[in-house]
Every structure is written in structure tokens, then in C-alpha cells.
């Protein structure tokens, strides 16, 4: 045991790679130089032999010896008193070089030049100010020779006051260019401090006298006792009750105390954008790093993917959104509605349905536990180049995009190298690099490079709360905004179902398809109320979507019987036709324009009546008033099973909805685990251009879904290719994850607020003229609808042969029409059902013969 512990400690002790060793050596050198300069300066003796004079004594009193005396003399001669600040500046440079080496490499040339110019300007202004205002040090000028030159050049032209103003302006400008400090922010802090001190001074007489202050503006107790609205008071109490739970949870995860909820008036930092790409080659264009202005404030990390405190930043975002209740009403505490119980029950339910769930119902994002080392990225980049060279392919890695699950290496191919050659080497590269799979991105929009996507050694989990808390989701105004996940750069990816307008999701079992559908549904529940979006859920497996039973968004109970599923789709066709007639009568083009016109009419006090109402429709004496129409999202978890049971009519119903239902606000989300051509037919693909492919088993399945290969190289567990509408280039997205207990919490929150209002006619299967498919007729009218029916009956009775082929040849019609005519004769009792040999017997005698 002791030997194993020794080996383990040895591995930890000697675990630095090449880049980390150089960085630590640089830190040691800079620290030693800073200490050497500080010792030389504080122990400087004018009698020591140095740069500006020769000493009269052989013994050197400087702690750093003759070299230290020489350096100290040179620094004091050049900069005066400012020389004592230089050791600390050298130490800071070593600290930044060690902690933020990758940030310094990605500095933009313009920013780097401005910082160098700021350093020179600050140093010149500081030495000149020191030369004009402080006493000399030993036999040196207080500002050194540099300060004397600048001050003596300016004083004859601007006098003392003018020169001082110019130098102070130069010093402030240089300090801003060097460090990024904002003097306006400094003035704000100084003003706030003065105001706070002034208010406290005003309160001192009242505190000593024991009386309450006369001015209620500075009386916190009196302000707290003012009458407040019930909802506000309940929310404030709920906030106080919720705070310890979050603080305790933060302590358990060893997070920083930023997760505790601050007062509402305290400003919070905005969420930082994901890190930009760090180029690995000088030919790539340098890019600015987002946190260059605050290098010294960040934690030490060799991660090229995420800051180790990323979860803390996300927590700040969640907290910030929780406080902005007026701008983002979706972020509420789950107990708010339960606290306000003094109002009427009906008003409470109506009010609660207008609010959206709280982010507290979802799990917080995980901390990054396995950051990627830049040295590893450099090593893999060189390895990729070497392996490609083994296959006689010359390429250069010019950029790396690390993500939560995969890392994309951008390759610049040598002239004459075809992209198809790299694509054909995907499996060989995966074997050579010891990777599960390698995906080749042949076209990167806006770049002349190709992409090579390799899986990370440790993949991160993208939580649903992380994407919902992102400003990309919150700033979207569409009620049909759905969460997908994060792309390879770590940016949140959301999609608007209204623009798709239908979505096809396909992937093998275990690829994350069901979790992805749950994420989409939950994100819609976080974005829209029952007045905005209603659902029809069809779940042949009776497991995936039954969890949503009872939420107020449902138009009908979750459909598990496939016969009822066909009726539900038929109802959607009828509803689509009814909405089109309404919009046509009102002169609008889509559902958005219809709802805007209804809202405008209600606001003017002149609500519109239903133009399609007929007195025979119901018992009312007049037409009912029109109301807002919600969008309808039809979610089918496994439509391959439904097509197998119900038959070809389902495909026709889906195709009809997909063709026309966009303007009517009816949208389809179709999911299947069998991506074959008999399920994802050409008719469905032609009307559903937006598709998501999870991991599939073969290139054929990938082409069936996306019309191109690539899905067979995915990693599973939520890894997907998203083909947006109007684009032929799929985007790789790492799907967000939502656990079962999170879904249960969101569903329970909605069920607590209100009950669903089901429409029984959805599953009743009533057939009307509006929802008939092409070629269909109402029941009992099929025989009379065909003009050849009477002639066919006469022919069959006369010939005594009830065969489909005979009717087909006699009247020169198609097989399907002839078969329908014979089947109608059977239904009317004119002929018998087919026997074992397929022959039918004519049951009606021939009266003419």
C-alpha cells in the first residue's frame, strides 16, 4: 500500500507536460528577477560602485552585489521614484504569463499595440509628474532623466498648472489603454460612496437621540412596513424562504457564494460569451480574447474549453433572470402561486396560467471537472497531420474548436488534394487516432478549410437549465422556441418551430431521440402558456409522452390507440380547413395576423363575430365572438408503428397537414427509430425540410434522413445533426439533457395551476366534408358518388361474373376504381364476399333474362 501511494504521489508530482513546464520556469524567472530588482533598490548605497559613478570603497553594501548596485543605479537614474514600482510590474507580468498564457497568445494586434502604447504613456506621465512634485532621491532626480526631459520640454509652453493637467490626462489615458479601467465607473463608485456617507451622517443625530429619522427616504424600516400588493409580499416572503436552500446547495457543491440570491437592486454581471477559438498557426487571423481586460481576475486554468468557474457564471445568469420578473415572466419561484391564496380561486387559476415555470425546477449545470489541456490539443493537431501524411495527404491544422463533446480541427489542404479523399479515410483515421469515430466536415460556411471532428476524452453534460437560462432563448419572441442543445463551440442552439414549420426526428434506439423530444416539449412549456400553444401527443409506445398527461396545454388526452391517432390527424385536417376559412373571411394571411386582428378588435371594444357561423350549427341565437387561436403542435413519438397499424392513410394525412398547415399554426414533430424509406417516404421528406438525425447504423439511413451521410459517425447520447430550414449544410449539436424528475417537476407545476380542457370530437372519428382526403366520400354516399355504379351493377348481374378485372376491362377504368365498385356491391348485398379461390357469387337474380 505504501509503495502504491508513493507511485501515485510521484505521478501527481511529475505530471507537468511540456507547456506547463515552460510556464512554471517562466514564472520562476520573472519572480526571481522581481525579487532581485527589489533587493537592489531598497539596499541601494550611493557609495557603491555602479553605472553612473565609481566607488571609493572595495566593499559593496548592496544586498544584490555589484550587479544589483549597477541595476539599481540605472533604474533610479532613468525613472527616479517610479523605479520602485518596476519590480512589482515584473512580478505581475510573470503571474499573467503563467496563468493566462493562452489568452496572451490570442491577443489581437490592435489591442496588443494599444496596451504597449498605454504602458509607455503611463510611464512617461508618471515620471514627469514625479519630477515636478517630489523631492530628489539621493543625487538622482525624483522623476529620473526621463521625467526631467518631459517636464522641461512642457513647462516653457504650458506653465506648471497646464503641464500638470496635460500629464494627468496622459496618465489617465495610458492607464485606461493598459488596464482597461473605466474612469466613469470609478466616478460612479465614488459618488455612491459619498452619497452613502452623506446619508449615514444625516442619520447620526436621530440615532443618538433615539428618534426615527424625519426623512422617510433613508428609513429602511418604514419602507419595509409600507403596504404592498399581496402578490409582491408573497413573492418577497417566498424569496426569503428560498434563499437558504440555494445557499446550502451551493455549499454542498463547493461553489462560490455567488449562488446565494442577492438583493434585487444589486447589479449583476452579464453572462460571458463562450470562448473564441484559439488558432494554432500563424497563418490564421489573430482574434481577441473576451476577458483580456480582466486577466488578473480569472482563476488559473489550462482549459481550452471552459472556465472552471463557468457554472458560477451560469448560476449568476439563472439568478439574474429570476430577479427580472417584469422582463422575463417565465422565471418565477415554484411556490409563488401557492403562497397567494387570499384571492378568488378562479382568478388565481387564471393568473397562474399566465405565468411560466421557474428555473428552480431544473437541475443546475454541472461544473467542468475535466478541462482540455492546450498542450493536448497541440499534440493531437500534430498527430492528425502526421497520420494524414501517412496516407499521402498533406494538410495543416490551422484552427481548433473545442466543444463540450467533440473538438473540431480545421485543416488547410495542400493544392490538388480532394476532400473526397479525406472523407474516404475517416475510418482509417479513427483507427489511427484511437477514436470511436471521426466525422469529416467537407464544407465549413465562410471558410476554405475542411473540418475533422474528434470526440473528447471526457464529454460534458449539457443541462436544459443551462440553455433555457441563456439570453438566446430568453430574447426569442416566438412562443414556439425550442431548445436543441449546444454546438461544437459551446454556444446554445435554439430553433423556432414556427419557421420550420414541421420537424422530423430520427435515430436508432439509445441515440437520445426520446430525450431530445422531451427537451423540446419542456422548452415549449417554459416558453408558452396554454393560450399560446396546445398539444396533441400520440404515443404508440405508451411510455414516452404519457408523463405529460393532465397538463393544461393538451387538447386531448395522450393518444395511445392508433385508430384514435388517425382520428386525431383527421381532426387536425378539419381544423386546418376551418382556420383557413376564418383567415380568408377576415383578410389575413396567417395565424399571427389573425390573432393580432382579434386582439386589436377586443382592445377597441368591438369584438368580431364568427363569419362562418350558421343557425343550424348550435342552439345560439347569434354568432359567437371570435377568440385568440393557439398554435397546435402534434407530437408523434413513433409514427412508423402508427403507419404499420393504420396504413397508408396516415401518410396522406401527414402529407396534407405538412403541405398546408403552416399558415394555420399547426405544426408536426415526427419521431421514429426506424429511418427506412418505407417510413420516411419521399412524400413526407418533400414536405418536412427540417430534420434532426441522431446516431444511425449506416450511411443509407443517414441519407434517408438528411439526404447525405454523416449521422453514422455520431457518438450517440444526444449527439445530433440538425438540418435547419433552407439550408443544405447540417449543424452538429450536442443535445441538452433533461432527467425524468425534472420533467415530473415541470408537469406537476403546470397541473397544479389548472386542468386541461379536452375536446371530445378529436378522438370521435367524425368524418366531415372538411377533413376528407382526396378520393374519399362520406359514409353511405360512396356508391352514389360514382356515376358508373349503376352501369357496373347492370353489367355484373347480366354477366353473372363479379370480378374486378371484368369491370375494369368493360368500362376501361383503373383497378382501384373497379375494386371500389365491386366492394360497394358487396356492401349493398348484391355480391358475396370472395371465396377461397377469389371468386364472388352474384346474389341478385337476372330479372331481364
TrEMBL record:
Which residues does the annotated region (Disordered) include? 223-276, 828-849
Residue positions binding ATP? 507-514
Question: How does this protein sit in the membrane?
Answer: Multi-pass membrane protein
Q: Name one GO biological process term.
A: chromosome segregation
Q: Name one GO cellular component term.
A: plasma membrane
* Pfam families linked: FtsK_4TM, FtsK_alpha, FtsK_gamma, FtsK_SpoIIIE
List the InterPro entries hit by this protein, alphabetically.
FtsK/SpoIIIE/SftA, FtsK_4TM, FtsK_alpha, FtsK_dom, Ftsk_gamma, P-loop_NTPase, WH-like_DNA-bd_sf, WH_DNA-bd_sf
Q: GO: which molecular function terms? A: ATP binding; DNA binding
Question: Where is this protein localized, as stated in its record?
Answer: Cell membrane
Q: Does the keyword Transmembrane helix apply?
A: yes
TM segment ranges: 21-44, 74-98, 110-131
Show where the FtsK domain sits: 490-703
Comp. bias regions, Basic and acidic residues: 267-276
Q: Which domain of life is it from?
A: Bacteria
Matching entries from PROSITE patterns are given as: FTSK
Keywords (alphabetical) are:
ATP-binding, Cell cycle, Cell division, Cell membrane, Chromosome partition, DNA-binding, Membrane, Nucleotide-binding, Transmembrane, Transmembrane helix
Task: Give the similarity note.
Answer: Belongs to the FtsK/SpoIIIE/SftA family.
Which PANTHER family does the entry link to? DNA TRANSLOCASE FTSK, SPORULATION PROTEIN RELATED
Q: What is this protein called?
A: DNA translocase FtsK
Q: What is the lineage of its organism?
A: Bacteria, Pseudomonadati, Pseudomonadota, Gammaproteobacteria, Alteromonadales
Amino acid at each position: 500500500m505504501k509503495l502504491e501511494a508513493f507511485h501515485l504521489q510521484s505521478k501527481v508530482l511529475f505530471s507537468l507536460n511540456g507547456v506547463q513546464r515552460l510556464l512554471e520556469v517562466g514564472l520562476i524567472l520573472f519572480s526571481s528577477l522581481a525579487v532581485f530588482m527589489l533587493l537592489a533598490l531598497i539596499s541601494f548605497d550611493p557609495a557603491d560602485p555602479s553605472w553612473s559613478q565609481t566607488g571609493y570603497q572595495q566593499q559593496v553594501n548592496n544586498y544584490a552585489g555589484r550587479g544589483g548596485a549597477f541595476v539599481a543605479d540605472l533604474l533610479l537614474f532613468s525613472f527616479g521614484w517610479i523605479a520602485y514600482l518596476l519590480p512589482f510590474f515584473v512580478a505581475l507580468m510573470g503571474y499573467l504569463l503563467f496563468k493566462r498564457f493562452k489568452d496572451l497568445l490570442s491577443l489581437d494586434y490592435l489591442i496588443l499595440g494599444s496596451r504597449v502604447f498605454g504602458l509607455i504613456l503611463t510611464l512617461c506621465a508618471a515620471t514627469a509628474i514625479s519630477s515636478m512634485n517630489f523631492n530628489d532621491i539621493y543625487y538622482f532626480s525624483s522623476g529620473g532623466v526621463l521625467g526631467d526631459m518631459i517636464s522641461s520640454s512642457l513647462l516653457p509652453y504650458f506653465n506648471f498648472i497646464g503641464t500638470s493637467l496635460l500629464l494627468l490626462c496622459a496618465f489617465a489615458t495610458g492607464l485606461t489603454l493598459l488596464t482597461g479601467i473605466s474612469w466613469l465607473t470609478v466616478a460612479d463608485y465614488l459618488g455612491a460612496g459619498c452619497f452613502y456617507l452623506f446619508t449615514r451622517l444625516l442619520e447620526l443625530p436621530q440615532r443618538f437621540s433615539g428618534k426615527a429619522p424625519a426623512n422617510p427616504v433613508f428609513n429602511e424600516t418604514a419602507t419595509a412596513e409600507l403596504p404592498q400588493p399581496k402578490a409582491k409580499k408573497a413573492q418577497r416572503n417566498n424569496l426569503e424562504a428560498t434563499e437558504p436552500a440555494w445557499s446550502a446547495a451551493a455549499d454542498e457543491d463547493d461553489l462560490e457564494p455567488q449562488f446565494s440570491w442577492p438583493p434585487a437592486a444589486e447589479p449583476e454581471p452579464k453572462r460571458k460569451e463562450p470562448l473564441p477559438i484559439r488558432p494554432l498557426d500563424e497563418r490564421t487571423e489573430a482574434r481577441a480574447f473576451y476577458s483580456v481586460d480582466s486577466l488578473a481576475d480569472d482563476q488559473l486554468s489550462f482549459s481550452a474549453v471552459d472556465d472552471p468557474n463557468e457554472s458560477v457564471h451560469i448560476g449568476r445568469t439563472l439568478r439574474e433572470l429570476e430577479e427580472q420578473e417584469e422582463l422575463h415572466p417565465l422565471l418565477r419561484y415554484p411556490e409563488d402561486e401557492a403562497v397567494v391564496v387570499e384571492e378568488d380561486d378562479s382568478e388565481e387559476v387564471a393568473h397562474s396560467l399566465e405565468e411560466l415555470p421557474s428555473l428552480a425546477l431544473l437541475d443546475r449545470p454541472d461544473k467542468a471537472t475535466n478541462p482540455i489541456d492546450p498542450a493536448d490539443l497541440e499534440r493531437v493537431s500534430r498527430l492528425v497531420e502526421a497520420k494524414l501524411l501517412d496516407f499521402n495527404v498533406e494538410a495543416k491544422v490551422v484552427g481548433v474548436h473545442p466543444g463540450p463533446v467533440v473538438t473540431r480541427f480545421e485543416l488547410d489542404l495542400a493544392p490538388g488534394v480532394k476532400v473526397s479523399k479525406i472523407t474516404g479515410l475517416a475510418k482509417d483515421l479513427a483507427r489511427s487516432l484511437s477514436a470511436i469515430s471521426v466525422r469529416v466536415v467537407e464544407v465549413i460556411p465562410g471558410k476554405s478549410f475542411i473540418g475533422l471532428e474528434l470526440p473528447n476524452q471526457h464529454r460534458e453534460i449539457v443541462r436544459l437549465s443551462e440553455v433555457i437560462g441563456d439570453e438566446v432563448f430568453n430574447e426569442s419572441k416566438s412562443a414556439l422556441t425550442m431548445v436543441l442543445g449546444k454546438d461544437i463551440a459551446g454556444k446554445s442552439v435554439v430553433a423556432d418551430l414556427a419557421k420550420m414549420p414541421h420537424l422530423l426526428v430520427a435515430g436508432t434506439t439509445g441515440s437520445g431521440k426520446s430525450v431530445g423530444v422531451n427537451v423540446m416539449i419542456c422548452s415549449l412549456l417554459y416558453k408558452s402558456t396554454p393560450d399560446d400553444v396546445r398539444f396533441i401527443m400520440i404515443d404508440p409506445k405508451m411510455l414516452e409522452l404519457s408523463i405529460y398527461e393532465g397538463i393544461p396545454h393538451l387538447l386531448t388526452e395522450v393518444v395511445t390507440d392508433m385508430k384514435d391517432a388517425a382520428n386525431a390527424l383527421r381532426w387536425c385536417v378539419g381544423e386546418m380547413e376551418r382556420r383557413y376559412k376564418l383567415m380568408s373571411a377576415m383578410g389575413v394571411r396567417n395565424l399571427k395576423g389573425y390573432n393580432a386582428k382579434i386582439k386589436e378588435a377586443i382592445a377597441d371594444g368591438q369584438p368580431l363575430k364568427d363569419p362562418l357561423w350558421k343557425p343550424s350549427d348550435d342552439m345560439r341565437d347569434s354568432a359567437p365572438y371570435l377568440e385568440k387561436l393557439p398554435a397546435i403542435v402534434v407530437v408523434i413519438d413513433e409514427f412508423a408503428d402508427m403507419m404499420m397499424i393504420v396504413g397508408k392513410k396516415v401518410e396522406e394525412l401527414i402529407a396534407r397537414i405538412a403541405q398546408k398547415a403552416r399558415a394555420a399554426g399547426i405544426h408536426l414533430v415526427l419521431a421514429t427509430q426506424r429511418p427506412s424509406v418505407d417510413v420516411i417516404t419521399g412524400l413526407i421528406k418533400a414536405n418536412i425540410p427540417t430534420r434532426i438525425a441522431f446516431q444511425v447504423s449506416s450511411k443509407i439511413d443517414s441519407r434517408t434522413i438528411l439526404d447525405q451521410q454523416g449521422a453514422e459517425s455520431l457518438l450517440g447520447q444526444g449527439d445530433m445533426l440538425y438540418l435547419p430550414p433552407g439550408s443544405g449544410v447540417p449543424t452538429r449539436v450536442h443535445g441538452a439533457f433533461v432527467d425524468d424528475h425534472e420533467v415530473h417537476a415541470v408537469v406537476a407545476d403546470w397541473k397544479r395551476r389548472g386542468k386541461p380542457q379536452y375536446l371530445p370530437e378529436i378522438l370521435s372519428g367524425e368524418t366531415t366534408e372538411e377533413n376528407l382526403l382526396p378520393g374519399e366520400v362520406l359514409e353511405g354516399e360512396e356508391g352514389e358518388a360514382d356515376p358508373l355504379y349503376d352501369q357496373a351493377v347492370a353489367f355484373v348481374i347480366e354477366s353473372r361474373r363479379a370480378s374486378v378485372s371484368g369491370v375494369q376491362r368493360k368500362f376501361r377504368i383503373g383497378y382501384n376504381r373497379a375494386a371500389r365498385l365491386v366492394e360497394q356491391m358487396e356492401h349493398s348485398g348484391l355480391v358475396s364476399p370472395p371465396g377461397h379461390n377469389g371468386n364472388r357469387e352474384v346474389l341478385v337474380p337476372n330479372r331481364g333474362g
